[in-house]
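input
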Amino acid sequence: MNDEDSLKLTPPWYTYFNLIKHSIGKDRYIEVFNMKELSDTDFLIQIKTRNKEKALALATLISPIKKFGNTRIYIEVTYCGEVVKPTKTPQNVNNAIKIVRKALGTNHYFESVEHVTLMGRITIFPVFKKEVIQFFNDDLSDLYNNFNGVAADVFSEILRPFINEFPIAPSTSIKKRSDILD
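output
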């Protein structure tokens, strides 16, 4: 068997890059640059924004590092060529919701943000369209080797699990009554 016939699979850090590119990158104010290899085990994904407030909110909402064993992916949000640091942690739910709206408000998949008190704890629910994010990924479980993920699930991989003490739980929008009747 020659090298061309051997099985090649996409490493998980490239899948993670594509998750960011095809979710966060679906925003007219954002550009996701190709992942850079810093070393054998360290990679960098830069997300450029054209709005400083969006950059601050996005830096606050996105996980800044993702680990796959000993491989690390660093995620940087930039504005005007400068790396943006997360804003101060919001002390109340209204400020946390504002951060979610500012970060995701112009994203193709984003619909709204809600908050609910569950078992005495306020949980923030960014709500996403009922859409599938799809890209080629050497996925052997798919006939065409695509990754297929519900938008809310993809965002849950990328966003921080908490802003301050508020859990972030991406959700999918509900069907409208007219959709059910069709």
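quick obs: The mean pLDDT is 90.
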